[in-house]
Amino acid sequence: MSKNVIKGMCIGFFIILLSIAAMYLGLAFYYGNSFSYGTWINGIYCTGKSIHEVNDELKKQCSYTGLTIIDSDGKSYAIPAKDVSLSFDFEESLSLYLEKQNPYLWIENLIGGPLGGKNFKPVADYDEAAYEKILNSFSFFQGKTTDERRVEILKGDKGYYLLDERTHALNEEKAKEQIKSAFENFEDVLDLEASGCYENLPLTGEMEDKITLWQKLASYQDCGIVYCFGEERYPIDGGVVCDFLELDEDGNFVFDEQGQLCTDEEKVYAFVEQLADKYDTVGAVRRFHATRGEVVEVEGGIYGNQLDKEAEKEYLLSAFLAHRKEEHEPAYLQKALKQGQDDIGDTYIEVDMTNQMMYYYEKGELKIETPVVTGNTGLRRGTPTGTNYVYNKQRNRVLRGEDYASPVKYWIPVKGAIGIHDASWRNKYGGEIYKTNGSHGCINTPLDEVSKLYEMVEIGTPCVMFY
Fold first, then answer.
1. d(Cα 115, Cα 235) in Å, to the nearest integer?
2. Across-strand partners of 163?
3. How far is CA 322 from the centre of its chain?
4. Residue 42 in contact with residue 120, Cβ under 8 Å?
5. Dihedral of the alpha carbons of 334, 338, 342, 345, in degrees to the nearest 10
6. pLDDT tens digits for 202-242?
7. Most exposed among 125, 293, 333, 360, judged by the fewest C-beta atoms under 10 Å?
8. CA–CA dist 350, 274 (Å, integer)
9. CB 336 within 8 A of CB 417
């Protein structure tokens, strides 16, 4: 190869190098006041763009709905971004990066392309007053100092309970710092428990004594007896047994020789009396939804439930002291067809004496609807009101009184000598016959209807009678 060729090649190579250098320096100079060639930030190509242009593009791809905070009880609290007017801004980060960026080293930007680019987090800007208002509304912030956090035994609807503000107490200052950091870093969820925001505070000797007493109270109130009144359940829980405790004249708990809490037997008996007041229904006032469309009050009668209070006093005291856990159906002196406060149920006889109508419902379905004639109110023999029941059924009986002897084919007594029966001497029923030509107190019923009732109704079925 001749010298001229070699010389030519060297000159050509030098010219190429010079061209590349000129191009490199030209690009560095051209993008000197903006982001240099090959700059990628958060997946956006930024070459030749100003800080404001890049900032606008980066903000468009930002999305944050707010922070959800979970306390140790698993309850959730939210700081919605829209409620504090949250906005995003990258200008500070972009300005610092642009200042540090050397336009003459733009070749570094080509290493890795967009995957090797920079990733910046935006700066959060929000209404701090609105943020504080939401934060301070959260129930887990009590605003108490360490010295103000107490240990107390209190009494509520469920019995005695321990208010312990020192065990597993929320460090409010730390919690607020963690929440602020999570919100400003656009985290979706912050678990205060997992973030170490709860701690145990030291206890005084008096506080330790209260905790020991509370443990005895908790054990005392752990009662598993459940009274069964038909379908109704009445648990003998802490809210009940807390009132069984024996107290001294100053209202302090009384302990036995073993240091255990004492039970006041008279208080147990008093509770059984209250239970009977609630569930005894014989002669009680009942609110009854009449077929005529209104609710009537029906008082008196012989139907209903009546607890055997003496048997129940003995049972409850014994079962409670033995810590038995069981469902218990109480003993009754009188037991209705159904137990519970609604002891009539959906199968019953209804006698509307104002409208002189009788109805029989079986499992909620109307089976019989008939006019009747009840007691003569003009002679003060009006049929008595009350909730009674069918206590017998007889065929072909003679009903006798001081001035009558009436043979009937069907006899359905519901209260003493008051019953439902046919009346062959009548050819009309209903209307206002009862006011002047009524019965001696019984419910006179057409033969066809009373015969159907006799076959269908069972002994024990309630009979609601009212005007």
1. 66
2. 152
3. 32
4. yes
5. -140
6. 999 999 999 999 999 999 999 999 999 999 999 999 999 99
7. 293
8. 30
9. no
Quick one: angle between helices 128-136 and 172-184, nearest 10? 130
Write the DSSP assignment of 227-278 as a string of letters. Answer: EEETTEEEE--HHHHGGGB-B-TTS-B-B-TTSPBPB-HHHHHHHHHHHHHH
Q: What's the distance, Cα to Cα, between the start and end of the chain in Å?
A: 136
Over residues 452-466, mean pLDDT: 98
Residue 347 pLDDT greater than 80, yes or no: yes
Parallel, antiparallel, or unpaired for β 365-371 and 386-389? Answer: unpaired
Q: For 140-144, 165-169, 260-264, which range has the lowest pLDDT when averaged over its residues?
A: 140-144
Measure Cα distances from 85 to 66, 90, 129, 130 in Å.
Answer: 11, 17, 11, 9
Which amino acid does the sequence have at 137?
Answer: S
Instruction: State the pTM of this model.
Output: 0.69
Lookup: tokens for 209: 């004594």
Mapped onto helix, strand or coil, the DSSP state of residue 167 is: coil
Separation CA 39–CA 54 (nearest Å): 11
- DSSP class of residue 408 equals E
pLDDT of 30 strictly over 90? no
Please write the tens of the pLDDT for every residue from 55-105. Answer: 788 778 888 899 999 999 999 999 999 999 988 888 787 777 767 755 544
Q: Which of 55, 56, 37, 57 is nearest to 47 (CA)?
A: 37
Q: Across-strand partners of 288?
A: 296
User: Nearest CA to 345 among 286, 293, 297, 295?
Assistant: 286
